[in-house]
Design a protein that fits this description.
By secondary structure, the chain is α+β, with helices and mostly antiparallel strands. The protein is built from 5 helices and 17 strands. The strands form 4 sheets. The chain has an 8-stranded antiparallel β-sheet.
C-alpha cells in the first residue's frame, strides 16, 4: 500500500495523520490519535515495511470507528513488564490507545500520553507520562549507524521518556514494538532485531529496530520486533531511552547480505 493510499484511510473519519519525508525519497506516516507510526517506506514505490491490520483500515474506509481496544499495527510503545501492565495480553486503555497529544516542528514529532495504569503484580496504581520524540532520518544519518549501502533507505530516531508521576514502587519499563508482516524472517541480537520481508522473491525489504540499551526479542503475538528498556532506576522517577527504526529495500541477495553484516559483524 502506497503512502497516499494509507493516508487516505484516516481522512475518512477525520483522524489526524502526519507524513514526513525520510531517506532520499522515502516517507513515514504517524497517526497521533493512536500514538503510532503506521507507515515506513524506503522509497515511494516500495511497500510499507510495517504491518497494518487490514480490518482496521477497512473500518476506517467504511466509517466505523471501534471504541474498544484495537491493534492497528505499525510501531508503538507500551508499559512493561507484561506481568504488571498486560491483562489477557492487552494493555490498559490508558496506555493503548491512550490520549496522545501532538507537538511538532520541522525536525521532530512529539507524541505525549498521560494516564494511570494498574500494576497487577504489585497491586498499585501507577500514574505516568509517556512521550515519543520522533526525528525522521535521511540517508547520511542512517549510513552513520549502519554503514554505506546502495539499498534504498528511510527511518527515524526516537527518544522515549517515561516519567512515573505517582509514589508507586513499580519497576516500570518502556516496551517498543514494531509489527512485521506475517511470514517475515526475524533475527535477534542483544539490542537489535532485523526482519526480512519477501526474502524468497527477487526483491526484499529489511526492517531494522535497535536500542541504545535494553533487551530485544521476537514477539510472536503480535509477531514483530520488540525491545524493552531497562527499568526506571530505584529512587528515580524518569527514564530516557533511545531507539532507531529503519527500512531498506533492494535485491533480495543484497538485503540478506546487508542484514547479516549489520547484525553479526557488529556483534549487536
Amino acid at each position: 500500500m502506497s503512502p497516499e493510499e494509507l493516508a487516505a484511510r484516516p481522512s475518512t473519519l477525520g483522524i489526524a495523520h502526519v507524513v514526513r519525508p525520510s531517506g532520499a525519497d522515502g516517507v513515514l506516516l504517524v497517526a497521533p490519535e493512536y500514538g503510532r507510526v503506521l507507515g515506513l517506506w524506503p522509497h515511494l514505490k516500495a511497500e510499507n515495511a510495517l504491518w497494518v491490520d487490514p480490518d482496521f483500515l477497512q473500518s476506517l474506509q467504511v466509517g466505523v470507528k471501534d471504541d474498544g481496544w484495537i491493534n492497528p499495527g505499525g510501531d508503538w510503545v507500551w508499559l512493561a513488564p507484561a506481568e504488571e501492565f498486560l491483562s489477557e495480553g492487552r494493555p490498559a486503555p490508558s496506555v493503548d490507545p491512550g490520549k496522545y497529544t501532538l507537538a511538532s516542528d520541522r525536525a521532530f514529532l512529539g507524541l505525549t500520553n498521560r494516564g494511570e495504569a494498574f500494576a497487577r503484580r504489585s497491586g498499585s496504581h501507577v500514574r505516568f507520562r509517556l512521550s515519543r520524540r520522533i526525528r525522521p532520518l535521511f540517508e547520511a544519518d542512517i549510513d552513520s549507524t549502519f554503514g554505506q549501502t546502495w539499498l534504498r533507505r528511510a527511518g527515524w530516531d526516537e527518544e522515549v521518556e517515561l516519567e512515573i508521576e505517582s509514589r508507586a514502587s513499580v519497576p516500570a519499563q518502556v516496551w517498543s514494538l514494531a509489527q512485521a508482516p506475517a511470514g517475515s524472517e526475524i533475527r535477534a541480537g542483544h539490542t537489535m532485531l532485523v526482519c526480512i520481508e519477501d526474502g524468497e522473491s527477487d526483491r526484499a525489504r529489511l526492517l531494522v529496530k535497535e536500542a541504545s540499551t535494553g533487551s530485544a526479542f521476537v514477539d510472536e503475538r503480535p509477531r514483530g520486533l520488540s525491545i524493552i528498556s531497562p527499568p526506571v532506576e530505584p529512587g528515580r522517577r524518569r527514564l530516557r531511552w533511545s531507539t532507531r527504526t529503519c527500512a531498506f529495500s533492494g535485491r533480495s541477495a543484497e538485503v540478506r547480505q546487508f542484514a547479516s553484516r549489520m547484525l553479526y559483524s557488529t556483534g549487536r
